[in-house]
Write a structure and sequence with these properties.
The structure is a single chain. The protein is α/β, with parallel strands linked by helices. The chain folds into two domains: 121 residues, Response regulator (Rossmann fold), CATH 3.40.50.2300; 94 residues, Winged helix-like DNA-binding domain superfamily/Winged helix DNA-binding domain (Arc Repressor Mutant, subunit A). It is 39% helix and 19% strand. Strand 3, helix 3 and strand 4 form a beta-alpha-beta unit. It is elongated, with a radius of gyration of 19 Å.
Length: 229
């Protein structure tokens, strides 16, 4: 069994019994140790007493909703949080730095997709703990607005530099198009979120010239982008 996930404690906060049980079964089959809560008021005390390795957090809960729980958790814990929600309009807020959710899955979802997201987060943690440095793939010279990829200088526009720099600040963190757009232009010009897609496309072309086997920029349909290293 994969040592990265063997025995990791996963807290499922979900008030739909059938869905919670289904997630438990899939997590058990994958080598995790799942626990379940259905009332939002129970989450903070449980986390303080049991220190889970990751939390799957629904938004619509009795007692206390997931947004408030996420905010409270971040006051004392950096535990990875994956939001499960049908409220797509909340995604920008949930993934904002002030709340600090690490990822999200929209309902209805496949349990296999949830397991894949959980494993991806633990892989990132393992890589970080192993001391893998971003500079092995990317190095940034902020004053000169230069980024090197695999040791080779990228020919970037100012906008592309700001876009890639933003993604590099939080590898693995999903950014919505609106969040990225806020970082691109200093003159407050009016542009559409599709402008981000165009710049991402150009960035990918420039990265692929250096390595056509790697594509570190991951698209999340309907939301935005993240950098996977």
């Amino acid at each position: 069994m994969n040592n990265t996930i063997d025995g990791k404690k996963i807290l499922i906060v979900e008030d739909e019994p059938k869905l919670a049980q289904l997630l438990k079964e899939y997590l058990l089959q994958s080598g995790f140790v799942p626990f379940g809560l259905s009332n939002g008021l129970d989450v903070i005390p449980w986390v303080k007493d049991n220190e889970p390795d990751l939390i799957l957090l629904d938004l619509m809960l009795p007692g206390k909703d997931g947004i408030e729980i996420c905010r409270d958790l971040r006051r004392f814990s950096n535990v990875p949080i994956i939001i499960t929600t049908a409220r797509v309009e909340e995604i920008d807020r949930l993934l904002g730095l002030e709340l600090g959710a690490d990822d999200y899955v929209c309902k209805p979802y496949s349990p296999r997709e949830v397991i894949a997201r959980v494993k991806a987060i633990f892989r990132r943690i393992e890589t970080s703990q192993a001391g893998v440095n971003l500079e092995e793939e990317f190095s940034i010279e902020k004053e000169r607005m230069e980024i090197r990829y695999l040791g080779i200088l990228l020919d970037l526009t100012a906008v592309e530099f700001r876009l890639l720099s933003t993604l590099l600040k939080k590898p693995g963190r999903l950014f919505s198009r609106d969040q990225l757009l806020d970082q691109l232009y200093e003159d407050n010009r009016i542009v559409t979120t599709r402008t981000v897609d165009s710049h991402i496309k150009n960035l990918r072309k420039k990265l692929s010239v250096i390595s056509n086997e790697l594509d570190p920029i991951v698209s999340v349909y309907g939301v935005g982008y993240k950098l996977e290293l």
